[in-house]
């Protein structure tokens, strides 16, 4: 029991230090001791306090990180967003879907995958015999990447996140994965796939191939938005999802 406790302390310390390392020196000096929901010291303190708690509450840990994301300005996306979109679903989900970034609808409501592409993703999840609330859904960046960041009320203003934006935001996703500990990750589209695998292959070439990210099985597939534009992609996506189902049900690696 003591060994498990010490391992948990090391795990949470590591992810806290990874998060800390992504702060620039100028931004660190801006952190004050004053009581505020965005106070970095309180965020770090809470992470260490949790590491000494035997009965760790995953939802509480996620809420602590979400609070930090809501105050984040490590990249330019944090300055133009309306709402940060942290992610939602089951804290003990075996399956997590990771998209590229929030769009117009998500930015306005602060929830992931609620637009047309999100509705299509819900249909895919249900076809897999799951419900949205039994999986976890997030994005590789938590703020809306916009072509024109001065106009968040503009439709069709979406763009893929840059590598710099992904690098700034990915520690939050790493912490989500550390807490949820899914059995398998499904990356939706090129940006999330490239961001996690550091792979420049086109999504059409890499989709459906079994990969790993930090010890977690990963399978890339097309983004639901691509399926809305090209119905011919539905069949290969369903083939990918059948592989995910098989792995979750049997543990077999195809």
Task: Reconstruct the topology from this structure.
Blueprint: H1 2-21, H2 25-30, H3 40-51, H4 58-70, H5 77-80, E1 88-89, E2 95-99, H6 104-109, H7 116-127, E3 136-139, H8 163-180, E4 184-188, H9 190-197, H10 203-206, E5 211-213, E6 216-221, H11 224-229, H12 234-250
Parallel strand pairs: 2-3, 2-4, 4-6
Antiparallel strand pairs: 1-3, 5-6
Helix pairs in contact: 1-3, 1-8, 3-4, 4-8
Structural class: alpha/beta
Q: Provide the residue-averaged pLDDT.
A: 85
Task: Give the tally of β-strands.
Answer: 6
Secondary structure: helix percent:
40-55%
In the CATH hierarchy, what is the superfamily of the largest domain? Uracil-DNA glycosylase-like domain
The order of strands across the largest sheet is 1-3-2-4-6-5
Write down the CATH class of the largest domain: Alpha Beta
The biggest sheet, with number of strands, parallel, antiparallel or mixed sense and barrel status, is: 6 strands, mixed
Overall form: globular
Instruction: Enter the CATH topology name of the largest domain.
Output: Uracil-DNA Glycosylase, subunit E
């Amino acid at each position: 029991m003591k060994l498990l406790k010490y391992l948990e302390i090391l795990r949470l310390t590591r992810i806290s230090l990874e998060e800390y390392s992504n702060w620039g020196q100028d931004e660190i000096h801006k952190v004050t001791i004053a009581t505020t929901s965005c106070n970095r010291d309180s965020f770090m303190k809470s992470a260490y306090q949790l590491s000494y708690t035997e009965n760790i509450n995953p939802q509480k840990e996620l809420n602590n990180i979400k609070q930090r994301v809501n105050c984040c300005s490590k990249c330019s996306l944090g300055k133009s967003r309306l709402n940060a979109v942290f992610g939602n679903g089951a804290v003990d989900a075996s399956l997590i879907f990771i998209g590229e970034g929030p769009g117009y609808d998500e930015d306005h409501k602060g929830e992931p995958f609620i637009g047309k592409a999100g509705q299509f993703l819900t249909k895919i999840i249900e076809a897999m015999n799951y419900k949205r609330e039994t999986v976890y859904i997030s994005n590789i960046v938590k703020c809306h990447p916009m072509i024109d960041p001065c106009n968040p009320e503009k439709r069709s203003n979406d763009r893929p996140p840059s590598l710099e934006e992904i690098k700034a935001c990915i520690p939050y996703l790493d912490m989500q994965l550390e807490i949820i500990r899914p059995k398998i990750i499904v990356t939706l589209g090129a940006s999330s796939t490239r961001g996690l695998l550091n792979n420049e292959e086109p999504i059409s070439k890499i989709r459906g191939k079994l990969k790993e990210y930090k010890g977690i099985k990963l399978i890339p597939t097309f983004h639901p938005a691509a399926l809305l534009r090209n119905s011919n992609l539905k069949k290969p996506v369903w083939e990918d999802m059948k592989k995910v189902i098989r792995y979750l049900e049997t543990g077999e690696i195809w």
